[in-house]
Amino acid sequence: MSIFFQQIPEDATLRIPFTTNNTSGGATAPSSPFEAADVTIYKNGSASQKATTNGLTMTSPFDSTTGLHLLEIDTSVDTGDSGFWTEGADYIVVLNPDETVAGQAVVDVLAVFRLGPTINAVQFEWSLKATEGDILQLAVWLDRDGQTVDIDALDAAATCDITIREHGAAIGAPLYTFNLSAGTASHYEDKRFEYEYQNPSDDDPLFTSNREFDIEVILTINGVTYERNFSRIVW
């Protein structure tokens, strides 16, 4: 029975469990354990196959259970298959082993999937710690396909630049600019850039009611920038 995964993120690892059975439906082992070489992967309906088994891991049997197997496909690995894994392409995964099952040659479509784009979203939140509005709290993080990324684990030198302007103010006239680094303990915690700014003048609150602000956030991770702009934020 095929598994239709629809769309999976680029560079994701796909895990495909499958079983082998005899003609009566009972679980049975193949004549010898399956290997990664027993799998063929086709792209976009072409008869051209993935050239190598790089990135494929076959566990047969899985968990020492007769008739249960697990295939893992790491789409981030393209060694020997440059250009095979591409965003927007469709793939068919076929089991075509030299082993037999219950004395019979077998061919089975294990899975069908599309490799989709990785969706990165820069997230931002801010708040005022004191009622008089003199301590600004900032937090920035990166979501990838809905999961929060541990930026520091990817790049200990990652940076976060935050620019806050009064809405309608000329470009180049920011109210505040904050330059944060993942390598600075006071700037990064629990997968987020976090920072508190104390206004040096208690008589001049940072933000007051009925004002609008534009905020630009730029994350730089391993030389790649992720940018997001927030417009007309109102207290």
Cα separation of the termini: 55 Å
CATH superfamily of the largest domain: Immunoglobulins
Radius of gyration: 26 Å
Number of domains: 2
Order of helices and strands: EEEEEEEEEEEEHEEEEEE
Provide a descriptive summary of the structure in words:
This protein has 235 residues and is mainly beta. It folds into two domains: 114 residues, Immunoglobulins (Immunoglobulin-like, Sandwich), CATH 2.60.40.10; 115 residues, Immunoglobulins (Immunoglobulin-like, Sandwich), CATH 2.60.40.10. Helices cover 2% and strands 49% of the residues. It has one helix and 18 strands. Strands 10, 11, 12, 15 and 16 form a five-stranded antiparallel sheet that branches. A four-stranded mixed sheet has the order 1-9-6-3, with no helix packed on it. The chain has a four-stranded antiparallel sheet with strand order 14-13-17-18, with no helix packed on it. Strand 17 and strand 18 form a beta hairpin. The longest helix has 4 residues. The protein is elongated, with a radius of gyration of 26 Å. The relative contact order is 0.15.
Helices and strands in order:
Elements: E1 3-9, E2 13-19, E3 39-43, E4 56-59, E5 68-74, E6 90-95, E7 100-101, E8 104-105, E9 108-116, E10 120-128, E11 135-144, E12 147-148, H1 151-154, E13 159-166, E14 176-181, E15 188-189, E16 192-198, E17 212-221, E18 224-234
Parallel strand pairs: 1-9
Antiparallel strand pairs: 2-5, 3-6, 4-5, 6-9, 7-8, 10-11, 11-12, 11-16, 13-14, 13-17, 15-16, 17-18
Keywords:
235 residues; Immunoglobulin-like; four-stranded mixed β-sheet; 1 helix; 49% strand; elongated
